[in-house]
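Entry 14. Structure prediction run on the chain below.
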Amino acid sequence: MLKEMKEQIIESFEKVMKSGEVTAAQVRDIVQNAVSDTAKKVKEGGITLREIAREASATAMDGLKQKRIATRERIAAAVEGAIDGIKSTEQRAMDRTRQEIQQLKTRLSGEEQKLSEDVREALEGIRQSSEAFTGEMKEHIETAVTDAKLKYAQLLGLTGETVKQAVKRVIDSGKDVEETVAQITKDATEKALAEVHFSADRVRKVSQTVISAAVETAEEADTNIREVARGAVQGTREGVTSAVESTKETLSAAGAKTKSFATEDLVRTKEDLEAVEDLFLETIRGVAGKSGKVASEVLTGLADQARKIPSTLKEKAGEAAETISNRLKELGKDTFGKAAHLTEETVHTAAEETKELSKRALDIAKGAVSGMIRGAKDVLKKDKEDKS
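Output returned:
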């Protein structure tokens, strides 16, 4: 397979040479095509990508040297061609994966919509069953249905509107506005996050929906904006904190059952927990950017203040993340140790590469600056000559 690749590169060089001068672009294309064609068959022949890149570049360099056209530009083009050849193969696989992910997202969205419709239909059926009863029995059934809708408000797409209507009622009453809004938003956030597996993206979406709904309601009423904004942030934060604590409890109680969890899922959840505080503050700032002057000042101030003081949310998230770390260790010291070892190797390699790259970047920058200075001197010199 490597022999065929070398022959392909040599034949391509010969063909191009007959038509005239070999450009850097042609060198890159020749190497890229040969590497790409060979890389597709890697699994079949058991050849590594390192071998392919090494042999392809060596063949190209040797060809350039024999033809006495081994300029810096052509050598750089051969290197880029080898890399582009590897990239093109992996890029196709990535494109296929992205397409599959998009198809799965579309399918998931459809299934979520169907689930929402099914739950809504079931709740309506239960509500209709109350018509066969009277008095307290009928009242209890209807209340239970309403509570169920409130519990699954996020699934039904009702979280934002539910918060709006509840906050409007509080503003109209004029009593304990900030405290009541905090409780409303806490409950809404807690219920919405309890519906699915904890994730940073879910926290962002729910927090944004809840805080925005509350603030928009106060702005529409043009009253109690500061109280509502403060209450919404406090309540939403408490709701997120509650979801974090629930996640920790679930993992702590799982014990051996955690072994059935995908390691990737645990790692992802750990990362989400570690990022949740900053993500929540970013969400507040995001809502502030879309709000009126008063609400924007309050929300921005709360976000700034939160960065300066200890946070219960950050503390609880840290504890939950630590729980996951312990679970990962329990899943297998060998696997965990191997991963750590690989990470150390990667960090060491990256550090060495960074030194090399930084030196080259500095050389390039110095060359560019030197060129500009020379250019400026030439211009000044020419200007003086013109004047004299």
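The chain has 14 helices and no strands.
Filed with the rest of this week's runs.
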